[in-house]
Design brief:
Blueprint (H helix, E strand, L loop, with lengths): L1 H54 L1 H28 L7 H26 L8 H27 L3 H7 L2 H13 L7 H16 L13 H24 L5 H22 L9 H27 L2 H5 L4 H14 L6 H28 L1
Protein name: Membrane protein
Keywords: Cell membrane, Membrane, Transmembrane, Transmembrane helix
Family: Belongs to the EamA transporter family.
Amino acid sequence: MIERTEKTEKSSRISSSAKAESSTAKAANAPLANEWTEAAKTNHRELEQQRSKFSDPIIVMLIAALCCLLWGSAYPSIKLGYVAFHILPEDIASKYVFAGYRFSLAGILLLLLYRVGFRRRLKLSGREWASLSILGVLQTGLQYMFFYVGVANTTGVKGSIMNATTTFFSVVLAHFIYKNDKLSRNKVIGCVLGFIGVIIVNFHADLLTFSFSFSGEGFIIMAALVFSITAIYAKRLTSAIDVMMITGVSLLVGGLVLTLLGLSLGGRVTHFTWESTMNLVYLALLSSVAFCLWNVLLKYNKVGKVSVYNFLIPIFGALLSALFLGETIWEMKNLVALVLVSVGIYLVNRVNSLQMIKSR
C-alpha cells in the first residue's frame, strides 16, 4: 500500500510538472502565435487589396490593352528581325533559334528582377519545377514553333487579325472548365462576329476568292489555340506560385527548348548589329512585360473577362504592320474585319459590365 501511494504521489507530481511546463510553453508561444495570426491577417488584407485593384474594370482594360499593344507590335518586329538577322523565309531552324534567344533573354531578365530587384528566393518544389517546365515547353516552346513560322508565311496585317481566334478559343474553353465563366448570348454573338472578321480577312480584295495557307494562317491559328489552353493552365498555377516566377521560368524553359531545337536542325543567328540587337532586346522586353502582366490579370479575374481583349491584338498588329512594314490596311476586307472584331470586344465587355452592376 505504501509503495502504491508513493507511486501515485510521484505520478501526480509528474503530471503537475507537465501541466506547469505546458502552461509555461503556451504562455511563451502566445506572442509568437499572435504574430503568426497578425501576419496571416496582413497577408490576407494585402491579397484582397491586390484583388480589388487588379479586378477593377478600368485597370483590367488598361493593362490588357497594353499587353495587346505589345503583342501586336511583335508582328512587325519579328518580320523586321528576320531582315536584320538575314534569316531567309525558308530557314525555319534559324527562326527557332531567333525565338529561343528572345524568350531565354526575357526569362533571364524577369528572374533577375525577381531575385535582385525584389530580393526573393528562387525556391520551388520539385512538383512546381515540373509544372512550370510543362508550361514553358507548351506555352512558349510549342506556341512559338507555330507562331514564328506562321508569321513568316503571311502578312503582318493578316497574321495579327488571324490571331484574334485566341479570344474565341479562350472564351469557349472557359465555359466548359469554369462554373462561373459561362457563355452568354452577348459573349457568343461577340465571339462569332470576331470569328467572322477573321474569316473575311482571308479573302482577296474582291471578297470572292478565299486564300488560306496552313503553314501561314493555319499555324497562326494553331498558336492561338495553344496559347488559349496554356493560359488556363497558367491561371491554375497562380494560386500557389508567384506570377513573376511562373512567367520567368516558363519563358526561360521555352526559350531553351526553341534554341536547342533550332541549333539541332542547323539553325544559326549570327548577324548581330546595333539594329538587330535592339530588335532582339525589344522583343525580349515585350515578352517579359506582356506575359507577366497578363498572368497577373488571369490570377485575379475570370478567363473570359481578360481573354476578350485579345481582339485588340489584330487592331494594333494591323496598324503597326501598316506603319512599319508599309503593308496596306485600307482594303475593304481589312476594314470590315477590324470593325467586326471591335464590335465583338464591345459586346463581351457590355455583358461583363451589366453583370457587375447587377451584383452591386
